[in-house]
Amino acid sequence: MASVRGGDDGGAGAPLVFVTPRYGPGVVGGSEAVVAEAARGLAARGHRVEILTTCAKSHYSWANEFEAGSFVEHGVTVRRFATVAARSRVAAGELERRVQRSEHLSAGEEVAWVNGRFRVPDLYLHLVAHAASYRAIVLSPYLFWSTIYGADVAPERTIVMPCLHDEPYAWLEIVRETLSKVAGLWFLSEPEHQLTHRVAPALAPRHAVVGAAVEIPERYDPAGFKARHGLERPFIFYAGRREQGKGWRDLLAAYASAVARDAATFDLVTVGAGAPEIPEGLAGRVVDLGYLETEELPNAFAAAEALVQPSTNESFSRTLMEAWLAGTPVIANAAGEVVAWHCERSGGGLTYADESEFAHCLRFVAEAPKAAAALAAKGREYVLEHYRWEVVLDAMEQFLEDFPRR
Amino acid sequence: MSRVLVVGTVPPPGGAAARRLAVVAAGRLADGDEVTVLSPDPRSAAHRSGSLTGFALVAQLAWRSRRHDVLELRIEPSLPLAPDSGRALRTAVLLALGVVLGRYASVTLRLDSPVPIPGGVGGRATTTLWAAVDTVVVQREEDRALLAQVPGLSAEQIVLEPPAEEAVAAAVRRWPTATDSGLRSEAQDEIRRSAAEERSLLAARREIGTPLPRAGSAFSEHVRVRASLPGLAHAALGLSRRGAAGIVRRQRALRTGSRSR
Q1: pTM for the complete prediction?
Q2: Residues of A with CB under 8 A from a CB of B
Q3: Statement: residue B222 has pLDDT above 90
């Protein structure tokens, strides 16, 4: 196990450590991206920053795909630790189903559930050994072993960036305890802040909405993107995990309904992790490009006629911001508290409450392209005002100025 | 009075092209013709539906030529040929189609754009087809130019009818403009209003059940239901009254100018 630099006493010059379950090329996930970029941003401002993570790439298998060890990247020291699989996949699966059904779990069962996906004991032990030498330990997101166990090591110097959504996991007792016992909390949006108050009434007194940010691309190449991927027809775009937790199947259903209503003049192009399981009836209309390189993703946003965000489980929704930055309008699920909040606050996005409204959102984009572009322009202004890294890093630094209180 | 067979997808499915075909049929009906609509899509408000791809279409047209003297045939994806049809099938179907069209006194082909005939509009296989046609209605200038080069078709037979009703349909939905100050809320209101209207329509359609098979009834019932719903008096088939009237006028002018056989 690598050791931290000698002489650190957790003071102002001590390293700041981010703990995230996954990090590296091919990793798809909002909280993972925020952690990576925040760590690099703070490092670029002169902070000593480390990332503790696992060797896993996939959040389905949690298999060790990266090599354990440490290396320096973008000015950040990254330390990888091997995961240990669940003791019993059958038992873990049953607990997962019960959580999804919002059934009550005993305290022991909740602990078993946390241990059911992956464990990373070496990372825990590293924190135990070195916690005192860190200025602050930032854990994210809320529902994984690395956060729930990590919060136990040195709660007095721990900040949780929960990326909380209103989902069954959020209401587990073990989550409430975690959010209540740490010294600080960073939220990505105001609705997430409000939700966390409902989940954990005895919230850590030091908390703030620091937000998140996205990189502003220097240029976009929508025509090149279409040519490189053989996309000849206009399309709407979904970027993210293709799983029900993110509303993927609901999106397919809404899109199929729009096709049936002849409201879908656009194809649906998707990128991200997970098998898209495109129904036979939509073959040829739904195009899966799999995983896109980071440099290519902005071009996809720029090439799309609209971004669709069907997920109700968002604490920030980076893709909204990336689409708006690219001048692309957004169509989001009205049931998603955070995305609806962004759409309304910015005046730059449309929301749909059902398949019929989804179809009419598509019609709006097709039939009133200038108005749709004007909406996207409002979205871009909103992102530039609130979600640039300069703004977010300022908020994080301000929070850290007297953290932890001595 | 003519006995008109209208073949192609009509609403609710099919979008603007289907609405256009429905308006053609409605115009014929308003003129006192006896109209039968035959659609490949079972969801259509048509008198009959069934497979209309390949020889199934040829058989249907041959069978129905006994009771109809005028044919309005929309060429759309998979009607008459599926996009993946091979050369042999294309040749056989188009030749047979050309022969069977000769059984009608008047034939108008209405081509989607781009023209969905696999292998293109030219070639020996299409010669019989074009020879059996009185009028070909195209939507875009490119399509007209393409067809003008096809042997067996004269320039007078090719009529350009731009899809103006798409703009009309958009106007019916009253989208805000880019410069409106309350752009987002106005767009959102319009989306909700249109969706609510659509839900009412679908509920009404469920109440009256599926289109009736009796000649003329299903289509007129579809129009009646749409027109009777609040806020839809001017939007039967998704078109404004003025827009629909304009299309009907164009159809009448077209028919007046078509050759008799």
Answers
A1: 0.62
A2: 260-262, 265, 343-344, 347-354, 356-357, 359-361, 363-364, 367-368, 370-371, 373-375, 378
A3: no
